């Protein structure tokens, strides 16, 4: 594992149980592959009535994108990003909490630099695709500037 949960938590604004990823397996300028085990945790903060809906995978992918932004930005926490849209979202399961294998989260920066980026993402487990889609993310540079003041 290239990066542990503790190290990647420094690159995203989520803390404690809300940091859903457990590590970074690989990354380069355009892609990242992360691993997560938190989908099996009964105390996962995204669970509702004891279940973790497959759509919560979008948050796992979003955190992987944020980590990628930090790594490609020199290892600093990136400015706050907002999920502007989802496209071609396909869920092949209803729930993630009943998936026995670790989640593998792949995200690829398709286009964009600066304040707007588009990623394709896939979440799989045990060699089976669970969720995939594309996400447009808007980076709010103004928030980063306010935080630095």
Structure explained in plain terms:
The longest helix has 16 residues, at 57-72. The chain is α+β, with helices and mostly antiparallel strands and 149 residues long. It has three helices and seven strands; from the N terminus they run βαββαββββα. The radius of gyration is 15 Å and the shape is globular. Helices cover 19% and strands 37% of the residues. It has a seven-stranded antiparallel β-sheet.
List keywords for this structure.
alpha+beta; 149 residues; 37% strand
Topology, pairings included?
Blueprint: E1 3-4, H1 5-9, E2 23-27, E3 31-36, H2 57-72, E4 81-91, E5 103-111, E6 116-125, E7 128-139, H3 141-148
Which structural class is indicated by helix and strand composition?
Answer: alpha+beta
Order of helices and strands: EHEEHEEEEH
The CA-CA distance between the termini, in Å, is: 35 Å
Helix content: 10-25%
**What is the radius of gyration?**
15 Å
Tally the helices: what do you get? 3
Main β-sheet: number of strands, strand sense, barrel status? 7 strands, antiparallel
- Unreliable sequence segments: 143-149
Proportion of residues in extended strands: 35-45%
- Please provide the count of β strands: 7
Mean pLDDT: 89
Shape: globular
Identify the strand order in the major beta sheet: 1-2-3-5-6-7-4
């Amino acid at each position: 594992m290239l990066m542990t949960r503790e190290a990647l938590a420094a690159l995203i604004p989520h803390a404690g149980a809300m940091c859903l990823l457990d590590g970074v397996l690989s990354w380069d300028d355009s892609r990242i592959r992360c691993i997560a085990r938190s989908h099996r945790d009964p105390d996962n903060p995204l669970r509702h009535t004891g279940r973790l809906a497959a759509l919560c995978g979008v948050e796992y992918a979003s955190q992987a994108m944020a980590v990628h932004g930090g790594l490609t930005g020199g290892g600093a926490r990136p400015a706050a990003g907002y999920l502007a849209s989802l496209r071609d979202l396909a869920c092949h399961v209803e729930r993630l909490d009943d998936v026995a294998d670790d989640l593998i989260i792949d995200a690829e920066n398709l286009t964009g630099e600066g304040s707007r980026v588009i990623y394709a993402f896939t979440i799989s487990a045990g060699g089976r695709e669970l969720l995939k889609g594309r996400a447009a993310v808007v980076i709010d540079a103004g928030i980063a500037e306010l935080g630095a003041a």
